[in-house]
Amino acid sequence: MTAPESQPAQHATQPLPRTLTRDLGQHDAQTVRLQGFLHARRDLGGVQFAVLRDVSGLAQCVGSGLHLPLPESSVEVVGTVRAHPKAPGGYEVQVSEFRVLSAAVQASPLEIPKMEWNVNPETMLDYRYVSLRGLKERAALRVQAELVRAFHQHLDAEGFTEISTPKIVSAGAEGGANLFKLDYFGEQAYLAQSPQLYKQIMVGVFERVYEVAPVYRAEEHATSRHLNEYLSLDVEMGFIDSEEDVMDLENRLLGSIMVHLKQSCAAEFTLLGATLPDVLPRIPRIPLMEARELVNREYGHVVGGKDLDPEAERLLCQYYAEKEGTDFVFVTRYPRAARPFYAYPEPGGELTRGFDLLFRGIEITSGGQRINEYEMLMTSIADYKLNPESLAGYTEVFKYGMPPHGGFAIGAERLTARLLGIANVRYARAFPRDRNRLTP
Ligand code: AMO
User: Which of 119, 215, 241, 270 has the highest local Cβ count within 10 Å?
Assistant: First the structure.
């Protein structure tokens, strides 16, 4: 069979390619096709104003005889671009065609252009599926996405390999009572609190690894810094000399993340009225005992317990911001009583090579050097009165030459919240799980 000499054209005319609202200025006086959501609508004496929102911003569209659907409907506009100083971005579109792609069948429970964090916070979470469409809400999540991208890029460039470890596990890694239990075909299982033990095992494979994944903490209390499911940015590296190497890495990583955010998220920071921190070439490092003395001496705050309390974290950050112009400070040399069994003990046995990183008033990271020798690990498990059998899947690997290693984890929501001045970590997560919330 021979092919016909010419195929009939499928479309008489090609549809215009889609233009994003942020690019209107490149199409002055031209016809464009926009697609997005009906952000707002007004009718002024027979002239309709439709504000269209797409992923890149807003565009004012003006026409007459338009039947505008309910706000949030997805729509398509074809029209001519005109400079207009009062319109968002300095241009508006004079509508020649208006199409509803998918009409909202019910008025949105939140008026998106007006809400922007003035609505009752619980309501914002109740209606997350629409509240996230708000410009500020989505800006926060976009910053987080770019932050995660920069995390990947920096670690890839330093020779790290991305790993993926189980979230259904047979034992907790971090100790404490905050494990979610799970019935695993009749056996007791848990949701992973941290990829800690697995990322260490993977150091034996790739030497330098990272993971970006949710982890689970059955925190009973509702605070502004605790989620029951959060995104953990985990790092682990082998062949270190001490935890100093690990802090050096996190220092470089944070520097890269802030450079990337400056380049990629300037509009989001402006919209949210937030400022990027400077990351000093060497973030200050202070041993925990000295930090406790400092907040007592400088602010008269006496810290109970073995760690810092939230007020001490806030005061220590205030001190370093005022005295050294840094929003970050590492707290080092935590006592064993305040660290898990895997933390590497200092000679003498009371302190460890564990550290925390504080940022703008709260802890965003824990990390440190780990025990890498089998005998030392088994002794530590006994010291902590843990059951070696339940940890056997983890301890086995230490019989096979694990190098000196260490790492850290950053809570993505805490970092995002502190970067953007968001008071509660729940608003730095799309669909937070907290003590009272399992939906949406
Ligand atoms: P840790 O338990 O300190 O350490 O957690 C590390 C970081 O995770 C964040 N984070 C949380 N964020 C929101 N809600 C929570 N409930 C919550 N709990 C912790 C904090 C914290 O600094 N395996 C170690 C890390 C390591 O040593 O590599 C660990 O999980 O930002």
Answer: 215
